[in-house]
Amino acid sequence: MHIVTTIAGSDSGGGAGIQADLKTFQELKVFGTSVITALTAQNTLGVSDVLPIEVSFVEKQLKALIEDFSISAVKTGMLFSSEIIQSIARILADVNIPLIVDPVMIAKGGESLLQQEAIVALCSYLLPLATIVTPNIPEAETLTGRKIKTFADIQDAAHTLLQMGVQCVIIKGGHLTDNDYAIDYVFFEDGQSFSMQSSRIATKNTHGTGCTFSAALTAFIGRGFSIKEAIVEAKKYIQLAITYDLSIGNGHGPTNHFAYQKYKESCEVIIHET
Ligand SMILES: Nc1ncnc2c1ncn2[C@@H]1O[C@H](COP(=O)(O)OP(=O)(O)O)[C@@H](O)[C@H]1O
Ligand SMILES: Cc1ncc(COP(=O)(O)OP(=O)(O)O)c(N)n1
């Protein structure tokens, strides 16, 4: 059994964070373990409060897992503070486990999930350890300090992130809503790149899409897929999870984790080598 770990915040509403990650891990047949960095009081309408976990206790959770399990991939989501980032980076630097960093910053409703001053720590301590980083467009803008409007801007941002020491950058196009397609752009440290295109689903139920995509990626990497295979399969997982979305709650509903195993053979993702 492949064991994977998520280091992230809890979403009481179950659509994002730790809960989305563990549901994805279960569907993709890996054994999920977790390190909780913060509790959020959250539902489909937004985040009403955040309670960060003490740094020493975040460390204890991660050390407990590393001491006992042979972990085949780790992902990070909501990390909240510079102190939490530095402490987990110190521990992860001593183990050789593929690391997927989803640089979660702001919830859909605009509430902050990462303190502003923690962005420097993310770039200095965690990104150099990352196998893959998965920013959406606003996150890529914040990490690189540059506006992204064109494909050339996306390429520039990816190269800046690669220079920070990341091996592979995926800039997700979910926020580029002026397009009939949801296109994600992938760049590797050796200069290779490709884009993945799927049809854009017209729905408001996209709570937790970023968490779910990066969790699927972590599960496939943990199972031993190549980085490219894992990225394409994770794109199929999120495409189907959004296509068969769940209208739960009164705001942005969650994605559907049951869709992938049922419909994966029929899911089309178009790859363009660039
Ligand atoms: N409406 C949509 N239809 C299809 N795919 C989408 C849609 N919205 C987002 N995606 C996909 O979901 C994944 C997560 O992207 P995004 O929503 O940009 O992340 P985040 O939740 O971090 O903002 C990406 O693969 C993106 O292309
Ligand atoms: C606890 C927690 N972690 C992460 C997020 C953000 O999730 P994301 O997948 O980026 O989805 P939306 O916020 O866009 O729905 C979160 N809300 N809570």
TrEMBL record:
Pathway, per record: Cofactor biosynthesis; thiamine diphosphate biosynthesis; 4-amino-2-methyl-5-diphosphomethylpyrimidine from 5-amino-1-(5-phospho-D-ribosyl)imidazole: step 2/3; Cofactor biosynthesis; thiamine diphosphate biosynthesis; 4-amino-2-methyl-5-diphosphomethylpyrimidine from 5-amino-1-(5-phospho-D-ribosyl)imidazole: step 3/3
Keyword 4Fe-4S among record annotations: no
EC numbers: 2.7.1.49, 2.7.4.7
Keywords of the record: Kinase, Thiamine biosynthesis, Transferase
Reactions the enzyme catalyzes: 4-amino-2-methyl-5-(phosphooxymethyl)pyrimidine + ATP = 4-amino-2-methyl-5-(diphosphooxymethyl)pyrimidine + ADP; 4-amino-5-hydroxymethyl-2-methylpyrimidine + ATP = 4-amino-2-methyl-5-(phosphooxymethyl)pyrimidine + ADP + H(+)
Domain spans labelled Pyridoxamine kinase/Phosphomethylpyrimidine kinase: 11-256
InterPro entries membership: HMP/HMP-P_kinase_dom, PM/HMP-P_kinase-1, Ribokinase-like
MF terms (GO), sorted A to Z: hydroxymethylpyrimidine kinase activity; phosphomethylpyrimidine kinase activity
Highest taxon of the lineage: Bacteria
One Pfam family recorded for the sequence: Phos_pyr_kin
First-tier enzyme category under EC: transferase
NCBIfam families linked: HMP-P_kinase
Protein family according to the UniProt entry: Belongs to the ThiD family.
PANTHER family with a match to the protein in the record: HYDROXYMETHYLPYRIMIDINE_PHOSPHOMETHYLPYRIMIDINE KINASE THI20-RELATED, PHOSPHOMETHYLPYRIMIDINE KINASE
Protein name: Hydroxymethylpyrimidine/phosphomethylpyrimidine kinase
Species name: Lysinibacillus xylanilyticus
Gene name linked to the record: thiD
